[in-house]
Amino acid sequence: MRAIAYSETGPSSVLQLVERDIPEPGPGDVRVRIVVSGVNPTDWKARAGARAGRPTPFDEVVPNQDGAGVVDAVGDGVTGFAVGDRVWVFLAAHGRPSGTAQEFAVVPASRVVQLPDAAGFELGASLGVPAMTAHRALTVHEGGPTRLSPGALDGRTVLVVGGAGAVGHAAIQLARWAGAQVITTVSSPEKAALATAAGAHHVVNYRTDDAAAAIRAIAPDGVDQVVEVSPARNAALNARVIANHGSISVYATDGGAEMTLDVRHHFSLNARYQFLLLYTVGDAALAAGAEDVTRAVEDGALAVGEEAGLPLTRFPLERTAEGHDAVEAGTVGKVLIDVGDAAS
Hints:
Elements: E1 2-5, E2 16-19, E3 29-39, H1 41-48, E4 66-74, E5 86-89, E6 104-108, E7 112-114, H2 121-124, H3 128-137, E8 157-161, H4 166-177, E9 181-186, H5 189-198, E10 202-205, H6 211-218, E11 223-228, H7 231-241, E12 242-250, H8 263-269, E13 272-275, H9 283-298, E14 312-316, H10 320-328, E15 334-338
Helix pairs in contact: 1-10, 3-4, 3-9, 6-7
């Protein structure tokens, strides 16, 4: 089989197309014939490492956490999957040497999820890190819910910061599916159009508008939940718009690694900052996220593509390095790697 691999950290040029034997699934594993692999910021950052040239945690690493394809074989003790099942995969390379940038990937069964029949592989490969992160961000409020479903966020106002990004896009769609009023902030008219296509009820351009005033005009009592990608840059804005007992879910550090908060102001609001990292969130939260995200897909609430607010940029497997570079350069939308034929 063909695979993309690297044996030292560094720029995308360390990624090499190699030929490898098709791996056998061990106990508790599922082998998936990958059709589409998804690229996330975490993928290029792991490949780049803290410093170029350092050894990788394994002799050889196949990148990319997310993907979608067809079950090709199952290991001993695996239930709930059969050869031929269409599936989506998340965190394939977490703590392991083998991600989804290859024609066949062996993945623990706990990280493999049935893909609804109506969903394409491009959607399946776009779920994983973005949708699971968005799910967690929407389920850490003091008053719950801990699970998402239609009506779970009725009466809530959710602010999604950076609604044109992959996590922001998923958060808009999941929050709307769960019944929330959704506000999002963007930096351009083009991104505003994408956020609107994703389903946001209100879009605020923070570069041309007084964002806090615009958000307060929509939600006079403040927003109940914030899905935050840039906490340092937006700390003052969040303080101005968060409601009493509101929560701010932080999943990234774009725009600075440290932030300053007015302690007394947040005391008075009983506000909650919840930091989250998908890799250490725990098996129970991951399982809940996978179930709820799949239900949202079944309901047609999650979609990708330009018309759904998340443009797709695609590369063949041998050009995976270009896919990593595109994500690192901030390409709007989702970058996918076409690995295999869906009909094989």
